[in-house]
Amino acid sequence: MALSGLTALVTGATAGIGRAVAVQLAQEGAEVVVHGRDAQRGLEVVAEIEATGGAARFVQADLSKTEDVLRLAEEAGAVDILINNAGVYKFLPTSGMTDELFDLHMDLNTKAPYLLVRSLAPGMVERGHGSVVNISTLAAAVATTGTGMYSASKAALEQLTEVWAAEYADKGVRVNAVAPGPTRTPGTDEMDAATLRKIAETTAMRRIAEPEEVAEAVVFLASRRSSYITGVVLEVAGGRLSIG
Ligand code: NAP
Q1: What class has domain 7-235?
Q2: Quick one: which of 19, 106, 168, 226 is 20 to 30 A from 161 by CA?
Q3: 38 in ligand 1 pocket by Cβ < 6 Å?
Q4: What is the mean pLDDT of the chain?
Q5: 14 and 42 in contact (C-beta within 8 Å)?
Q6: Is 165 in the pocket of ligand 1 (CB under 6 A)?
Q7: pTM of the entire structure?
């Protein structure tokens, strides 16, 4: 199997896109560190992976807290594949954005990936190989009223993706991002159906994605099948519509 002998850390693997990525990485032979806050759902994902002969363990951490992020990096150990997936998206106009929500978007969507790369990339460099995939969003590239802080926190992550790709390219470590469009997850299940339908209508395919469709692209970028690709943001968004 393509990822045999490799260890992958997937943040936010207790639900949605992260869960689908964790399952697919395990199917390709990686030992998966399933991260999240909800231990029950984390252990369910571990059991799902083990039931099909894969290997996984759960680590609990609140990634909005620096000390938890650093502990996660410590407990994950030697990681060959890092998937920065855990994220928050609260859609509010600027006048409605609180200080606390501003900090949460930056801490979870930007700072946690930064701290994980800073902690784990040196080990990848030492071992001579590694792959990081950051989960961004189509909203980072499209100005949409109401998603300002979310889009900004992910745009920062996309910029860091390019910087890290440049920093680590000659050390055997590739860094890429996937920018999903609207995807069916517990997070989007909380949105009202009309909003979700409206977002789906902005895609050429006029539908939202299943998390497994996004995971396919993430696993491709994580694996050696993409060995000459670094610093890209791959849109998995059903095609963007042009004006008119
Ligand atoms: P989701 O269904 O809301 O699940 C979020 C995941 O992140 C859960 O595993 C959750 O863990 C974890 N998480 C949330 N807050 C956390 C915190 N403070 N500390 C640690 N873990 C935390 O998410 P999703 O829709 O699959 O989205 C996953 C990623 O894709 C996000 O980065 C999101 O921005 C991006 N994305 C999603 C869509 C979409 O339409 N769904 C589109 C574009 C981009 P617990 O539940 O265990 O706390």
Answers
A1: alpha beta
A2: 19
A3: yes
A4: 96
A5: yes
A6: no
A7: 0.98
